[in-house]
Design goal:
Number of domains: 1
Structural class: alpha+beta
Number of strands: 7
Radius of gyration: 15 Å
Helix content: 25-40%
Order of helices and strands: EHHEEEHEHEE
CATH architecture: 3-Layer(aba) Sandwich
């Protein structure tokens, strides 16, 4: 199976948003996606198979306590294609782009119950930094803040 990892096109946004809705309860308004593509397009990737969006990672750069951070906003892979290393490939590309921007650290939030994602992030070098009580609303659940030195 030949999967390509590339920057999304504006025409990919409806498929990305549909994948987000199908994959997790946290969703964003269309302008949020468009703004991220416009402002942080070099930190936004999609995985495509036969021209179809099957995964994405959306990131941005932030300044936290005077340290530049790469924040992983959202990452998802179509259920049909999970377990094929697509998530890690997307994350590797995001990390590479962050390093090109001289960003020293990446961070993300993940539901405490999302064991598969936590396991993937740990394999990528992330570790739990702190618990965020009731970070998620639908349903209410604590989250982990995980960080990774790039």
């Amino acid at each position: 199976m030949s999967v390509s990892i590339q920057h999304p096109l504006r025409t990919d946004l409806p498929a990305i948003m549909a994948l987000n809705v199908a994959s997790m309860p946290e969703t964003y308004v269309p302008s949020f996606w468009t703004n991220h593509l416009n402002q942080f397009g070099d930190l936004f990737y999609v995985a495509k198979f036969d021209g179809k969006v099957i995964g994405y990672v959306m990131c941005r750069e932030e300044l936290v306590n005077r340290v530049r951070m790469g924040l992983i906003i959202s990452v998802a892979v179509d259920k049909e294609y999970r377990g094929q290393e697509i998530g890690p490939k997307l994350m590797y590309e995001a990390h590479r782009a962050m390093r090109e921007r001289n960003i020293p650290m990446a961070a993300l939030q993940v539901r405490k119950s999302n064991e598969a994602a936590i396991k993937m992030y740990e394999k990528l070098g992330y570790s739990v930094n702190m618990k965020i009580p009731q970070y998620y609303r639908n349903p209410v659940e604590d989250g982990w803040l995980m960080t990774c030195v790039l």
